[in-house]
Design a protein that fits this description.
This protein folds into two domains: about 5-90 and about 135-230, Rossmann fold; about 235-269, no CATH class. It has nine helices and ten strands. It has helices at about 45-50, 75-80, 95-105, 110-120, 135-150, 165-180, 195-200, 220, 240-245, and strands spanning about 5-15, 20-30, 35, 60-65, 65-70, 80-85, 155-160, 185-190, 205-210, 210-215. The strands form two sheets. It has a six-stranded mixed beta sheet, sandwiched between helices. A four-stranded antiparallel beta sheet has the order 2-1-4-5, covered by helices on one side. Strand 9 (about 205-210) and strand 10 form a beta hairpin. The chain is globular. It starts with 5 loop residues before the first strand and ends in a 22-residue tail after the last helix. The structure holds adenosine-5'-triphosphate (ATP) and magnesium ion. Magnesium ion binds near residues 45 and 85. Adenosine-5'-triphosphate (ATP) binds near residues 18, 38, 40, 44 and 192.
Amino acid sequence: MTTAAIRVEGIEKSYKDLHVLRGVDFEVSPGSIFALLGSNGAGKTTMVKILSTLLKADAGSAAVEGFDVATESLQVRQSISLTGQFAAVDEVLSGKENLVLVAKLRHLKNPGQIADHLLAQFSLTEAGSRKVAGYSGGMRRRLDIAMSLIGNPEVIFLDEPTTGLDPEARLEVWHIVKNLAKRGTTVLLTTQYLDEAEQLADRIAILHEGRIIANGTLAELKQLLPPAKIEYVEKQPSLEDIFLALVGSGAQAGNNPVASNNESVKDRS
Ligand SMILES: Nc1ncnc2c1ncn2[C@@H]1O[C@H](COP(=O)(O)OP(=O)(O)OP(=O)(O)O)[C@@H](O)[C@H]1O
Ligand SMILES: [Mg+2]
């Protein structure tokens, strides 16, 4: 038996008459990126809440880092962090103050140093002393993810990490997630974007009508369809290609996970 970082067996969950999860099974190997794909209302957030001990399942079992989410919730909480679907940053505080607060809550030494290091890593150093209320959506997301890295959790849950971000900010988040997995963190992310799963995930599971209806690598999932037909078509750039070419995305730069500067992320609020 391999030790999975996350193991889910027969999980069921209803909200009154609404039977959302109807027997969900999957495993995530340590240090890999696993994408849970599903339409609106499929139950992705419900599954993440169960795994992060915020919600109890009605049936089945789940373990994170070998700890049962129902009976060993304290140990589970010590092994994970959760970046929810809606940013959890405190608007009134500055970026740095948010980070320092989390580091203090986690009883870490040198909270200021930890905060400065993360601000630099996420290209937020200049914005660090400003109130989060004035941050763009992309900056908030980066701060949100930075907060979830404090204390080096083994497993990170990212619930729709790029929803509402512009293409450039999305690429930045993708780089961050890839780097997390490179240093050994297990990442479970939910998304509605097929290209996001395709770009990031080692394995992809599709949640539909309460069950996992497909689970595999991208190559494995592609084999579920009939072999590709060869067609000759003129390749037109996608709107995303055009957008990125015009705004000059810096996200392709080598090792720097967040290469472009903060101010280039448009403020849509
Ligand atoms: N606390 C709740 N009480 C009642 N119904 C709920 C509750 N939370 C979620 N639901 C319902 O359960 C279903 C699954 O919700 P969930 O948020 O898990 O879906 P999701 O896949 O995360 O969707 P989205 O892509 O919109 O975030 C939805 O129909 C939702 O309306
Ligand atoms: Mg959701």
